[in-house]
Amino acid sequence: MNVNNSRLLHLLDVFSQFGKTPLNGVTRFALSNEDKLARDYLIKLSKEAGFSIKIDAIGNIFIRRGGKDNQLAPILIGSHGDSQPLGGRYDGIYGVLAGLEVLLSLNDHNIETERPIDLVMWTNEEGARFSPAMMGASVFIGNLSLTAALSEKDKDGISVEEALNNINYLGTDDFASYHPYAVLELHIEQGPVLENNQTEIGVVTGALGQNWYQITLTGLSSHAGTTPMNMRQDASVGMANAIVKFNKLGLREVVNQGRMTVGQIKLTPNSPNVIPGQAYFTLEVRHPNEQSLINIERKIYQILNDIARENNLVFDIKKVVSLSPVKFNSELIKTVQESCNSLGYSWEYIVSGAGHDACQLNHKFPTSMIFIPCVNGLSHNEAENITDEWCKNGARVLLNSTVALANKI
Predict the structure, then answer these.
(1) The pTM is what?
(2) CATH classification of the domain holding 106
């Protein structure tokens, strides 16, 4: 069975207008007016196609195409509709609209599945406006309380609850007893691997675990002109050495898909003629293996301890995020793999380097993901792009996999 790729490409163009930026990207923050436009249009299209709509208390939208037996657990497909500032036009929304195309294609072919199929648009996956990321999915599975989520505020002091009310998406539908048979999320890879390998589909086996650290090195601020080099307690030198050593440690883990990134730095007092007495920086570590994350953390402490001793500094380290590696459901991975084979697409196993709503859902429901390549591996960038062929390939694999699962009794 095929999808109507022209229709899907048109929908992607239409939705890219909701928050369009000058360089053809998208800024569509969660629960913004631009998000409302996307939500409203998705619901309009779904109602016109005869699908039923439900909205929960955190604003997640659920669109149902009924099956022969609507008492059977549904197949849940979809992704998120919000974006990063100056983000791309495919991140998240491609998975939503390809999911809608699955439902519309089934209508086109007058196919009735045994199980119902639900399409979801999750609230605030990106975390660009409200913290934390993956909010809607986290509330949905109970990893984040609804009360805590609704009370989160953006930089302007507007709470999630107020924002939901402002755009009329504070839903009342109860999903306490909802338990899908399977969850599939289609997404762009957001990295260069598939394109570099000329592979059409990524069969996602899991996602990297993550540890985020805040590190402070403290020395002594003093005059840059009067303090000899060998008598300094320069926190910036300690930080520079640490960054180089962390990079070398990360490079040794490349073969195991490990990644280490220093993303923020701050020197105090941050003056041209004062030796920095304090250096603050963040370190993010990602790895698919839990024990490796533990081993890397031990090495981080060793590196900081050595640098502090060598440079007469004191260090402080706080772990602010700790996410275990994700392993997706083996049967769903097999289903996606079989779909690729039946459609004649090249595929490879891939571990997601990014977090996704599916990673949260995997805590509670059988879950997996499907990746397509993106041009030059770019994402969270206005230049984010996919080819028409990649677009079709992903949607066809999603359709084939969804139908296979929806016809299992």
Answers:
(1) 0.91
(2) 3.40.630.10
